[in-house]
Amino acid sequence: MLELSEVDRRSADKQFTFGPMAFQFLMGKAPQPMFEARLNQLDFSASQVHKTLFGIAADTSFLRADRLIAWSLDSATAALALQSMNWRFQQDMLDSGRAIVMPEVWYLDAMQSLFFGLDDEEALSEALGRVNELGQFNWLPDTYHALLAARDQYHALLFQMGLDHETLWKIAEFFDRSQPATMRKA
Fold first, then answer.
1. How far apart are the C-alpha atoms of 129 and 186, rounded to whole Å?
2. Fewest CB atoms within 10 Å of the CB: 55, 110, 124, 159?
3. CB atoms within 10 A of CB 81
4. Domain-wise residue ranges, the chain
């Protein structure tokens, strides 16, 4: 067995040691996601955003006060953005049996049920349960109440602007029907 002398060991330690100067520099940098690590996923731009938003809901102690309002606005806006990507086309593909159910379809269903759906608690529970299982969030019982509080906050903000959540969703669906998706070869 090859053994290093004490001098060689110290030399190797110095060469591969993570010094305090480098540590402080890295700790001072602003946190940045490593997008390039996940770019091979087909659904990164759509479902990962929605999965992340639902994952944040797992920490009910985080969703308080202004963070609850910000989360509800971000989530509802993400749902409208996903709807605007013409998921009617995806639904047509599903109905014809030519496509698989992609995760963003379930996330859209859950967000639509939460923020824009009728007051159907059974449908909401089913949609949120499916997303919880799909995303493996391990939500606590308090999470459901936090999600309902976020919905109430969002509806209150819409009401202050003279808008209704059901009307807003109908506008999004109308635009989707009036501007059908077209597939073009590049």
1. 39
2. 159
3. 14
4. 44-178
Answer for the pair 147, 128: CB distance below 8 angstroms, yes or no. yes
For 116-150, the pLDDT digits (tens) are 888 888 999 999 999 999 888 888 888 999 999 99
Output the pTM of the full model. 0.62
Q: Check: CB of residue 54 under 8 Å from CB of residue 109.
A: no
Token pair 């989707």 in the structure block, residue: 176
Distances (CA, A) of 30 to 21, 26, 27, 50, 184: 16, 9, 8, 23, 40
State the helix-helix crossing angle for 165-178 and 141-160, rounded to 10 degrees. 80
